[in-house]
Amino acid sequence: MTYSTAIDEPENDEAEPKAEWGWWGSSQGSQLSKTGRVGVLFVGVLSVVFMVVATLIGDTFPKDSDSQLDYGQLLGPILVIAINTVALVRARWHPVALFAVSVFAMVVLALVLGNRGPAVTPLYWVSILMLSIRTEGRTFYLAVLAGLSADILVSVNLRINDLNLPLSSGAFGDLLFSPVMNVLMSYGIFIALGKVVRNQRRHKLVDEVQIRQLKQERDVDVQNALADERARMARELHDVSAHHLTAVIIQGKAAAEIFETAPGEVKDLLFGVVDQGERALRSLRQLVEVLRIGPTESQSPQPNIQSVMSLVDGCQRSGLTITVDIGSDLSDIDSAIQVSCYRIVQESLSNVLRHAYGSRVAVAIRRDSGSLKIMVENDVGVSLDRDMHGQGLGLVGLRERTEYLGGVFHAGPSEEGRWKVQAKIPLEGFIYQ
Protein backbone atom coordinates (compact mmCIF):
# COMPACT_ATOMS: atom_id res chain seq x y z
CA MET A 1 0.00 0.00 0.00
CA THR A 2 1.32 3.47 -0.88
CA TYR A 3 0.47 6.87 0.52
CA SER A 4 0.46 10.26 -1.17
CA THR A 5 3.03 12.75 0.05
CA ALA A 6 0.55 15.64 0.14
CA ILE A 7 -2.37 16.30 2.42
CA ASP A 8 -5.79 17.36 1.22
CA GLU A 9 -5.92 21.10 0.74
CA PRO A 10 -9.01 23.17 1.53
CA GLU A 11 -11.16 23.66 -1.54
CA ASN A 12 -10.70 27.40 -1.83
CA ASP A 13 -8.21 29.90 -3.18
CA GLU A 14 -6.53 30.48 0.17
CA ALA A 15 -4.63 27.27 0.73
CA GLU A 16 -2.92 26.70 4.03
CA PRO A 17 0.74 27.81 4.16
CA LYS A 18 3.23 24.99 3.68
CA ALA A 19 4.92 25.12 7.04
CA GLU A 20 6.45 23.06 9.79
CA TRP A 21 4.24 22.02 12.69
CA GLY A 22 6.75 22.78 15.42
CA TRP A 23 8.63 19.70 16.63
CA TRP A 24 5.93 17.48 15.09
CA GLY A 25 7.57 17.90 11.69
CA SER A 26 6.00 18.69 8.34
CA SER A 27 2.53 17.80 7.12
CA GLN A 28 4.22 16.30 4.08
CA GLY A 29 6.37 13.70 5.78
CA SER A 30 9.68 15.32 6.77
CA GLN A 31 11.57 13.95 9.74
CA LEU A 32 10.85 15.20 13.23
CA SER A 33 12.99 17.93 14.71
CA LYS A 34 15.66 17.07 17.27
CA THR A 35 13.32 18.01 20.12
CA GLY A 36 10.56 15.90 18.57
CA ARG A 37 12.82 12.86 18.21
CA VAL A 38 13.90 13.08 21.84
CA GLY A 39 10.25 13.38 22.86
CA VAL A 40 9.21 10.30 20.87
CA LEU A 41 12.14 8.29 22.28
CA PHE A 42 10.97 9.21 25.77
CA VAL A 43 7.42 8.16 24.91
CA GLY A 44 8.78 4.87 23.51
CA VAL A 45 10.57 4.09 26.77
CA LEU A 46 7.45 5.09 28.69
CA SER A 47 5.41 2.74 26.48
CA VAL A 48 7.67 -0.21 27.34
CA VAL A 49 7.28 0.52 31.05
CA PHE A 50 3.52 0.95 30.62
CA MET A 51 3.18 -2.34 28.73
CA VAL A 52 5.23 -4.33 31.27
CA VAL A 53 3.40 -2.90 34.29
CA ALA A 54 -0.02 -3.36 32.68
CA THR A 55 0.88 -6.95 31.76
CA LEU A 56 1.97 -7.79 35.28
CA ILE A 57 -1.08 -6.19 36.85
CA GLY A 58 -3.47 -7.64 34.31
CA ASP A 59 -2.05 -11.17 34.58
CA THR A 60 -2.01 -11.37 30.79
CA PHE A 61 0.51 -14.12 29.96
CA PRO A 62 -0.03 -17.77 30.92
CA LYS A 63 2.21 -18.83 33.80
CA ASP A 64 4.51 -21.85 34.00
CA SER A 65 4.13 -24.79 36.34
CA ASP A 66 5.49 -22.78 39.26
CA SER A 67 2.82 -20.12 38.78
CA GLN A 68 5.53 -17.60 37.86
CA LEU A 69 5.43 -15.27 34.88
CA ASP A 70 7.89 -16.14 32.12
CA TYR A 71 9.52 -12.75 31.57
CA GLY A 72 11.09 -13.95 28.35
CA GLN A 73 7.66 -13.69 26.77
CA LEU A 74 7.86 -9.91 27.16
CA LEU A 75 10.78 -9.64 24.71
CA GLY A 76 8.49 -9.91 21.68
CA PRO A 77 6.16 -7.04 22.71
CA ILE A 78 9.17 -4.92 23.73
CA LEU A 79 10.69 -5.49 20.28
CA VAL A 80 7.43 -4.43 18.62
CA ILE A 81 7.38 -1.18 20.63
CA ALA A 82 11.05 -0.55 19.80
CA ILE A 83 10.40 -0.97 16.07
CA ASN A 84 7.40 1.35 16.30
CA THR A 85 9.49 3.96 18.13
CA VAL A 86 12.32 3.83 15.58
CA ALA A 87 9.81 4.19 12.73
CA LEU A 88 8.36 7.35 14.28
CA VAL A 89 11.79 8.83 15.05
CA ARG A 90 13.76 8.07 11.89
CA ALA A 91 11.32 7.56 9.03
CA ARG A 92 10.45 10.32 6.54
CA TRP A 93 7.07 8.85 5.78
CA HIS A 94 3.71 10.52 5.41
CA PRO A 95 1.96 10.90 8.80
CA VAL A 96 -0.74 8.45 7.66
CA ALA A 97 1.91 5.79 7.06
CA LEU A 98 3.38 6.41 10.52
CA PHE A 99 -0.08 6.14 12.03
CA ALA A 100 -0.63 2.85 10.17
CA VAL A 101 2.61 1.48 11.66
CA SER A 102 1.41 2.38 15.16
CA VAL A 103 -2.01 0.78 14.57
CA PHE A 104 -0.35 -2.38 13.26
CA ALA A 105 1.94 -2.46 16.32
CA MET A 106 -1.07 -2.08 18.61
CA VAL A 107 -2.89 -4.96 16.88
CA VAL A 108 0.17 -7.23 17.15
CA LEU A 109 0.65 -6.37 20.83
CA ALA A 110 -3.03 -6.94 21.61
CA LEU A 111 -3.06 -10.36 19.92
CA VAL A 112 0.23 -11.44 21.51
CA LEU A 113 -0.73 -10.22 24.97
CA GLY A 114 -4.35 -11.32 24.65
CA ASN A 115 -5.49 -8.00 26.08
CA ARG A 116 -6.04 -4.56 24.56
CA GLY A 117 -5.12 -2.64 27.73
CA PRO A 118 -1.33 -3.16 27.68
CA ALA A 119 -1.29 -2.79 23.87
CA VAL A 120 -2.69 0.76 23.90
CA THR A 121 0.60 2.41 24.87
CA PRO A 122 1.46 6.12 25.09
CA LEU A 123 3.20 5.65 21.72
CA TYR A 124 -0.17 4.74 20.18
CA TRP A 125 -1.76 7.83 21.71
CA VAL A 126 1.04 10.02 20.32
CA SER A 127 0.50 8.58 16.82
CA ILE A 128 -3.18 9.58 16.99
CA LEU A 129 -2.17 13.05 18.17
CA MET A 130 0.39 13.45 15.37
CA LEU A 131 -2.14 12.33 12.76
CA SER A 132 -4.65 14.90 14.04
CA ILE A 133 -2.07 17.70 14.00
CA ARG A 134 -0.48 16.99 10.63
CA THR A 135 -3.43 15.95 8.43
CA GLU A 136 -6.96 17.09 7.67
CA GLY A 137 -9.82 16.58 5.24
CA ARG A 138 -10.51 13.26 3.53
CA THR A 139 -7.05 11.88 4.28
CA PHE A 140 -7.56 12.43 7.99
CA TYR A 141 -11.07 10.97 8.12
CA LEU A 142 -10.16 7.84 6.15
CA ALA A 143 -7.11 7.21 8.34
CA VAL A 144 -9.13 7.63 11.54
CA LEU A 145 -11.88 5.35 10.20
CA ALA A 146 -9.34 2.65 9.37
CA GLY A 147 -7.65 2.94 12.76
CA LEU A 148 -10.96 2.87 14.62
CA SER A 149 -12.13 -0.17 12.68
CA ALA A 150 -8.95 -2.14 13.38
CA ASP A 151 -8.99 -1.17 17.05
CA ILE A 152 -12.67 -2.03 17.52
CA LEU A 153 -12.38 -5.38 15.72
CA VAL A 154 -9.43 -6.45 17.85
CA SER A 155 -11.14 -5.26 21.04
CA VAL A 156 -14.39 -7.08 20.29
CA ASN A 157 -12.55 -10.25 19.27
CA LEU A 158 -10.53 -10.29 22.49
CA ARG A 159 -13.68 -9.59 24.49
CA ILE A 160 -15.51 -12.52 22.90
CA ASN A 161 -12.60 -14.91 23.46
CA ASP A 162 -12.16 -13.74 27.03
CA LEU A 163 -15.81 -14.19 28.08
CA ASN A 164 -16.60 -17.09 25.75
CA LEU A 165 -20.26 -15.96 25.47
CA PRO A 166 -22.69 -17.00 22.74
CA LEU A 167 -23.25 -14.36 20.06
CA SER A 168 -26.96 -13.92 20.73
CA SER A 169 -28.35 -10.50 19.92
CA GLY A 170 -28.43 -9.37 23.53
CA ALA A 171 -25.05 -10.77 24.45
CA PHE A 172 -23.43 -9.33 21.33
CA GLY A 173 -24.73 -5.86 22.20
CA ASP A 174 -23.20 -6.12 25.67
CA LEU A 175 -19.93 -7.33 24.16
CA LEU A 176 -19.82 -4.49 21.65
CA PHE A 177 -20.67 -1.54 23.89
CA SER A 178 -17.70 -1.55 26.27
CA PRO A 179 -14.81 -1.94 23.77
CA VAL A 180 -16.37 0.48 21.28
CA MET A 181 -16.80 3.16 23.93
CA ASN A 182 -13.21 2.69 25.14
CA VAL A 183 -11.84 3.07 21.61
CA LEU A 184 -14.04 6.06 20.77
CA MET A 185 -13.07 7.87 23.98
CA SER A 186 -9.34 7.30 23.34
CA TYR A 187 -9.56 8.59 19.79
CA GLY A 188 -11.89 11.46 20.67
CA ILE A 189 -9.62 12.88 23.37
CA PHE A 190 -6.41 12.85 21.33
CA ILE A 191 -8.05 13.96 18.08
CA ALA A 192 -9.60 16.95 19.85
CA LEU A 193 -6.28 17.85 21.46
CA GLY A 194 -4.49 17.53 18.12
CA LYS A 195 -6.95 19.78 16.32
CA VAL A 196 -6.58 22.45 19.00
CA VAL A 197 -2.80 22.38 18.53
CA ARG A 198 -3.18 22.41 14.72
CA ASN A 199 -5.54 25.40 14.72
CA GLN A 200 -3.36 27.41 17.09
CA ARG A 201 -0.29 26.68 15.01
CA ARG A 202 -2.11 27.53 11.78
CA HIS A 203 -3.25 30.89 13.14
CA LYS A 204 0.30 31.63 14.28
CA LEU A 205 1.67 30.76 10.84
CA VAL A 206 -0.89 32.97 9.10
CA ASP A 207 -0.07 35.87 11.43
CA GLU A 208 3.66 35.42 10.78
CA VAL A 209 3.12 35.39 7.02
CA GLN A 210 0.98 38.53 7.16
CA ILE A 211 3.53 40.34 9.33
CA ARG A 212 6.34 39.43 6.91
CA GLN A 213 4.27 40.59 3.95
CA LEU A 214 3.41 43.92 5.59
CA LYS A 215 7.06 44.49 6.49
CA GLN A 216 8.18 43.65 2.96
CA GLU A 217 5.55 45.98 1.47
CA ARG A 218 6.64 48.80 3.76
CA ASP A 219 10.31 48.24 2.91
CA VAL A 220 9.49 48.28 -0.80
CA ASP A 221 7.49 51.51 -0.45
CA VAL A 222 10.30 53.22 1.44
CA GLN A 223 12.95 52.03 -1.02
CA ASN A 224 10.82 53.16 -3.97
CA ALA A 225 10.40 56.60 -2.42
CA LEU A 226 14.15 56.91 -1.90
CA ALA A 227 14.93 55.56 -5.38
CA ASP A 228 12.54 58.00 -7.05
CA GLU A 229 14.10 60.89 -5.16
CA ARG A 230 17.63 59.91 -6.10
CA ALA A 231 16.66 59.31 -9.73
CA ARG A 232 15.20 62.80 -10.07
CA MET A 233 18.29 64.34 -8.51
CA ALA A 234 20.60 62.35 -10.80
CA ARG A 235 18.80 63.66 -13.91
CA GLU A 236 19.32 67.27 -12.87
CA LEU A 237 22.66 67.16 -11.09
CA HIS A 238 24.92 67.43 -14.15
CA ASP A 239 23.11 70.35 -15.79
CA VAL A 240 22.96 72.42 -12.60
CA SER A 241 26.50 71.94 -11.26
CA ALA A 242 28.66 71.19 -14.34
CA HIS A 243 29.25 74.85 -15.23
CA HIS A 244 30.55 75.87 -11.81
CA LEU A 245 32.68 72.78 -11.31
CA THR A 246 34.21 73.14 -14.79
CA ALA A 247 35.17 76.73 -13.98
CA VAL A 248 36.76 75.60 -10.72
CA ILE A 249 38.90 73.03 -12.54
CA ILE A 250 40.00 75.43 -15.30
CA GLN A 251 40.93 78.22 -12.90
CA GLY A 252 42.75 75.79 -10.62
CA LYS A 253 44.86 74.44 -13.51
CA ALA A 254 45.62 77.97 -14.72
CA ALA A 255 46.78 78.99 -11.26
CA ALA A 256 49.11 75.99 -11.13
CA GLU A 257 50.63 76.82 -14.53
CA ILE A 258 51.37 80.51 -13.81
CA PHE A 259 52.30 80.09 -10.16
CA GLU A 260 56.01 80.75 -10.87
CA THR A 261 55.78 83.10 -13.88
CA ALA A 262 52.92 85.37 -12.76
CA PRO A 263 52.32 84.94 -9.03
CA GLY A 264 50.28 88.15 -8.83
CA GLU A 265 47.54 86.70 -11.01
CA VAL A 266 47.34 83.49 -8.96
CA LYS A 267 45.52 85.29 -6.15
CA ASP A 268 42.76 86.45 -8.48
CA LEU A 269 42.41 82.96 -9.91
CA LEU A 270 42.12 81.47 -6.42
CA PHE A 271 39.45 84.00 -5.49
CA GLY A 272 37.63 82.89 -8.63
CA VAL A 273 37.91 79.25 -7.54
CA VAL A 274 36.40 80.10 -4.15
CA ASP A 275 33.60 82.09 -5.79
CA GLN A 276 32.75 79.29 -8.21
CA GLY A 277 32.83 76.76 -5.36
CA GLU A 278 30.35 78.83 -3.36
CA ARG A 279 28.15 79.17 -6.42
CA ALA A 280 28.27 75.39 -6.93
CA LEU A 281 27.28 74.82 -3.31
CA ARG A 282 24.33 77.19 -3.62
CA SER A 283 23.28 75.53 -6.86
CA LEU A 284 23.36 72.09 -5.29
CA ARG A 285 21.25 73.30 -2.39
CA GLN A 286 18.78 74.89 -4.78
CA LEU A 287 18.71 71.65 -6.75
CA VAL A 288 17.64 69.76 -3.66
CA GLU A 289 14.74 72.15 -3.18
CA VAL A 290 13.73 72.21 -6.85
CA LEU A 291 13.48 68.42 -6.84
CA ARG A 292 11.35 68.51 -3.70
CA ILE A 293 8.59 70.74 -5.06
CA GLY A 294 6.04 70.20 -7.79
CA PRO A 295 5.98 72.08 -11.10
CA THR A 296 3.01 74.27 -10.13
CA GLU A 297 4.42 75.16 -6.74
CA SER A 298 7.84 76.03 -8.16
CA GLN A 299 6.35 78.91 -10.20
CA SER A 300 5.20 80.76 -7.07
CA PRO A 301 7.30 82.43 -4.35
CA GLN A 302 8.78 79.82 -2.04
CA PRO A 303 7.90 79.80 1.67
CA ASN A 304 10.51 80.80 4.21
CA ILE A 305 10.89 80.84 7.97
CA GLN A 306 8.61 83.85 8.35
CA SER A 307 5.90 81.90 6.50
CA VAL A 308 5.77 79.51 9.44
CA MET A 309 3.54 81.97 11.33
CA SER A 310 0.80 81.82 8.71
CA LEU A 311 1.09 78.03 8.78
CA VAL A 312 0.72 78.07 12.57
CA ASP A 313 -2.32 80.36 12.37
CA GLY A 314 -4.07 77.95 10.01
CA CYS A 315 -3.36 74.97 12.28
CA GLN A 316 -4.61 76.86 15.32
CA ARG A 317 -7.87 77.54 13.52
CA SER A 318 -8.04 73.77 12.92
CA GLY A 319 -7.97 73.03 16.64
CA LEU A 320 -4.32 72.90 17.73
CA THR A 321 -2.84 74.90 20.59
CA ILE A 322 0.59 76.02 19.40
CA THR A 323 3.35 78.02 21.07
CA VAL A 324 5.99 79.45 18.72
CA ASP A 325 9.59 80.48 19.43
CA ILE A 326 11.28 81.87 16.29
CA GLY A 327 14.59 83.71 16.48
CA SER A 328 14.86 87.27 15.19
CA ASP A 329 18.15 86.85 13.31
CA LEU A 330 17.14 84.37 10.62
CA SER A 331 16.46 86.55 7.57
CA ASP A 332 19.93 86.08 6.07
CA ILE A 333 19.75 82.29 6.02
CA ASP A 334 20.05 80.53 2.65
CA SER A 335 16.69 80.18 0.88
CA ALA A 336 17.05 76.40 0.46
CA ILE A 337 17.48 76.03 4.22
CA GLN A 338 14.49 78.30 4.89
CA VAL A 339 12.27 76.27 2.55
CA SER A 340 13.41 73.03 4.22
CA CYS A 341 12.67 74.52 7.64
CA TYR A 342 9.18 75.45 6.51
CA ARG A 343 8.56 71.94 5.08
CA ILE A 344 9.70 70.25 8.28
CA VAL A 345 7.30 72.32 10.38
CA GLN A 346 4.52 71.85 7.82
CA GLU A 347 4.81 68.04 7.73
CA SER A 348 5.12 67.84 11.52
CA LEU A 349 1.98 69.90 12.09
CA SER A 350 0.12 67.86 9.47
CA ASN A 351 1.02 64.69 11.37
CA VAL A 352 -0.19 66.26 14.61
CA LEU A 353 -3.54 67.11 13.01
CA ARG A 354 -3.92 63.51 11.77
CA HIS A 355 -2.64 61.59 14.76
CA ALA A 356 -2.85 63.89 17.83
CA TYR A 357 -5.73 66.26 17.17
CA GLY A 358 -6.36 68.78 19.93
CA SER A 359 -2.93 68.37 21.50
CA ARG A 360 -0.57 71.12 22.60
CA VAL A 361 2.30 71.80 20.21
CA ALA A 362 5.57 73.68 20.67
CA VAL A 363 7.47 74.98 17.62
CA ALA A 364 10.98 76.37 18.00
CA ILE A 365 13.33 77.66 15.27
CA ARG A 366 16.66 79.00 16.48
CA ARG A 367 20.15 79.77 15.19
CA ASP A 368 22.65 77.79 17.27
CA SER A 369 26.44 77.78 16.77
CA GLY A 370 26.44 78.01 12.99
CA SER A 371 23.38 75.79 12.56
CA LEU A 372 19.63 76.17 12.34
CA LYS A 373 17.75 74.07 14.89
CA ILE A 374 14.10 73.17 14.24
CA MET A 375 11.97 71.45 16.89
CA VAL A 376 8.28 70.50 16.82
CA GLU A 377 6.97 68.71 19.92
CA ASN A 378 3.42 67.65 20.81
CA ASP A 379 1.65 65.68 23.49
CA VAL A 380 -0.89 62.88 23.01
CA GLY A 381 -4.19 63.78 21.38
CA VAL A 382 -7.04 62.11 19.51
CA SER A 383 -6.24 60.30 16.25
CA LEU A 384 -8.54 61.30 13.39
CA ASP A 385 -6.85 58.80 11.08
CA ARG A 386 -7.52 55.42 12.69
CA ASP A 387 -8.20 53.60 9.43
CA MET A 388 -5.12 54.96 7.64
CA HIS A 389 -2.03 54.55 9.76
CA GLY A 390 0.34 55.93 7.14
CA GLN A 391 3.66 54.51 6.08
CA GLY A 392 6.09 57.12 7.40
CA LEU A 393 7.12 58.26 3.91
CA GLY A 394 6.71 61.92 4.94
CA LEU A 395 9.27 61.45 7.71
CA VAL A 396 11.56 59.65 5.27
CA GLY A 397 11.37 62.67 2.97
CA LEU A 398 12.13 65.08 5.82
CA ARG A 399 15.14 63.01 6.83
CA GLU A 400 16.54 62.99 3.29
CA ARG A 401 15.84 66.72 2.88
CA THR A 402 17.79 67.45 6.05
CA GLU A 403 20.67 65.10 5.30
CA TYR A 404 21.14 66.42 1.76
CA LEU A 405 21.68 69.85 3.30
CA GLY A 406 24.33 68.39 5.59
CA GLY A 407 22.10 68.20 8.67
CA VAL A 408 20.74 65.58 11.04
CA PHE A 409 17.10 64.59 11.63
CA HIS A 410 15.33 62.71 14.41
CA ALA A 411 11.67 61.88 15.06
CA GLY A 412 10.40 59.82 17.99
CA PRO A 413 9.03 59.84 21.54
CA SER A 414 10.75 62.00 24.13
CA GLU A 415 11.56 61.05 27.71
CA GLU A 416 8.42 62.91 28.84
CA GLY A 417 6.22 60.72 26.65
CA ARG A 418 5.66 63.39 23.99
CA TRP A 419 6.39 63.14 20.26
CA LYS A 420 9.34 65.22 19.11
CA VAL A 421 10.66 66.08 15.64
CA GLN A 422 14.11 67.67 15.57
CA ALA A 423 16.37 68.82 12.74
CA LYS A 424 19.72 70.59 12.76
CA ILE A 425 21.01 72.06 9.47
CA PRO A 426 24.43 73.75 9.13
CA LEU A 427 24.28 77.30 7.81
CA GLU A 428 27.75 77.01 6.28
CA GLY A 429 29.37 73.88 4.95
CA PHE A 430 28.95 71.21 2.37
CA ILE A 431 26.24 68.74 1.44
CA TYR A 432 26.85 65.29 2.99
CA GLN A 433 28.97 67.00 5.63
How would you describe the overall organization of this protein?
- The model is unreliable at 1-27, 62-67, 295-300 and 386-391 (pLDDT under 50).
- The protein has helices spanning 34-58, 75-90, 95-113, 116-119, 122-134, 137-163, 169-257, 263-292, 295-298, 308-317, 335-355, 393-404, and strands at residues 321-326, 360-368, 371-378, 408-413, 419-426.
- The longest helix has 89 residues, at 169-257.
- With 433 residues, the protein is α+β, with helices and mostly antiparallel strands.
- The protein has three domains: 22-164, no CATH class; 224-296; 302-426, Histidine kinase-like ATPase, C-terminal domain (Heat Shock Protein 90), CATH 3.30.565.10.
- The two termini are 73 Å apart.
- Helix 6 runs antiparallel to helix 7 (169-257).
- The protein has a five-stranded mixed β-sheet, covered by helices on one side.
Give the SSE map.
Blueprint: H1 34-58, H2 75-90, H3 95-113, H4 116-119, H5 122-134, H6 137-163, H7 169-257, H8 263-292, H9 295-298, H10 308-317, E1 321-326, H11 335-355, E2 360-368, E3 371-378, H12 393-404, E4 408-413, E5 419-426
Parallel strand pairs: 1-2
Antiparallel strand pairs: 2-3, 3-5, 4-5
Helix pairs in contact: 1-2, 2-3, 3-5, 3-6, 5-7, 6-7, 7-8, 7-12, 8-11, 10-11, 11-12
